[in-house]
Design a protein that fits this description.
The protein is mainly alpha-helical. Helix content is 84%, strand content 0%.
């Protein structure tokens, strides 16, 4: 996952920038600008897809070796990643097209297609692995096929909304000014994702040094974390679209109202999730493993992290508002400081301090405690930066650019 996140980060950032630009033109009821933005998004997606399909498979094995991946699993990881990169077109186009749909105010359809993709992924996993005995490559192939189908569904839905925009070869050609605007907003978001992925890779090296039990623990904790974090991420995306549409419509007072309501709703969801993790995490981990030792270790680790989700909810909402207003640089620096300058040193420092005969490379609590601490500091930094109001200046200038 750290390798995937690093290589896909820039594109995810571009799709974030695209959604913001589209939401602003949609809010302004600018049909020509909206059509140009959508066309350039599709062009940039095709370009990024080609690039990753070429570069990804070439660097897979060297990156895994750099991370110190155990010999017992490195071949599986290599096969998985190569298949994923060769079939990356579905992932890229789903993320871009779903971002366009959200920018147009339709997040529900993107969610439905994601659910279809997830269900299909499960069915294909069982088919390829259990019936055809394809192993790890079968898991990768199932993911690639499911993502491709979700991308096709998103494109079909987008084509049904052409009363809002025009889509032709003319609008899908590269327009330098529009591409520059998308990239100007999107690249800092991509760098933000890349920073987090880089930190994940550095910490993954520490994780790998602690042995296969800790690696397995990290995998299942991150599975549950993915579900627990999803509401925070989607509230951040929602606030970006909400802010972008109101900036386009020049309704700046509604943005301030949205900040209060969005923070309250997101924090409420995060608190509920935190309580669920504190009370029911052992039952959740039994969905992934039947090993008592692994369930116990994962339960202790997720409980270290649990309260941090409330902090992330605040960070995501404030970051979403700043990005929607056109200020993607401030969230980038917040991420850089909280992950590179805080999480990595704290992780390695705690690991060094907790070394003993049983855990010569440190205790696994260092990995998850450092993550929780970085989330707390990220929230504090977000509140401070948000209060200075640079994003408000960007908000009033963004449509004039």
């Amino acid at each position: 996952m750290p390798i995937l996140n690093l290589l896909l980060a820039l594109f995810v950032g571009i799709s974030t920038g695209a959604g913001i630009v589209i939401s602003q033109h949609f809010g302004a009821r600018d049909r020509e600008g909206l059509s140009t933005a959508i066309g350039n998004c599709i062009f940039l997606t095709a370009l990024a897809t080609l690039l990753i399909m070429i570069v990804g498979p070439l660097i897979t094995r060297p990156f895994l070796e750099l991370l110190g991946t155990p010999d017992s699993i490195i071949d599986w990881c290599t096969d998985y990643l190569k298949i994923y990169f060769y079939g990356i077109v579905g992932f890229f186009f789903y993320n871009m097209l779903s971002g366009i749909l959200r920018g147009l105010g339709d997040s529900f359809t993107a969610l439905m297609f994601l659910l279809v993709s997830a269900a299909l992924n499960v069915v294909l996993d069982l088919l390829f692995v259990a019936k055809f005995s394809m192993g790890v490559p079968g898991v990768a192939l199932a993911t690639v096929i499911a993502q491709a189908i979700s991308a096709v569904l998103c494109y079909w839905k987008l084509m049904s909304m052409r009363d809002l925009f025009d889509l032709s070869l003319k609008t899908m050609r590269l327009i330098p000014a529009m591409a520059k605007r998308i990239l100007k907003i999107g690249i800092p978001s991509g760098i933000t994702q890349a920073i987090m992925a880089t930190a994940g890779m550095v910490v993954q090296s520490l994780t790998n040094s602690m042995g296969e039990t800790v690696i397995a623990c990290n995998v299942i904790v991150m599975r549950v974390d993915g579900f627990a974090m999803m509401p925070n991420l989607t509230f951040g995306q929602a606030m970006s679209v909400y802010t972008g549409q109101n900036v386009g419509a020049q309704k700046f007072d509604r943005v301030n109202q949205g900040v209060k309501q969005g923070t309250l709703i997101a924090a409420t969801f995060a608190t509920t999730i935190t309580l669920i993790l504190l009370l029911f995490s052992p039952y959740l981990f039994r969905l992934f493993t039947s090993t008592p030792e692994l369930i116990d270790l994962a339960t202790r680790m997720i409980r270290i992290m649990a309260v941090g989700y409330i902090c992330v909810s605040v960070t995501q909402v404030l970051g979403g508002v700043m990005r929607g207003a056109g200020d993607t640089v401030s969230p980038m620096w917040i991420s850089f400081i909280s992950t590179i300058f805080i999480r990595i040193p704290v992780a390695y420092g705690l690991a060094w301090l907790t070394r003993n005969e049983l855990n010569p490379h440190g205790q696994p609590a260092a990995l998850f405690g450092s993550l929780m601490f970085s989330w707390v500091m990220g929230m504090i930094l977000s509140v401070i930066v948000f209060s200075f109001g640079k994003w408000k200046k960007k908000m009033r200038l963004s449509m004039a650019q």
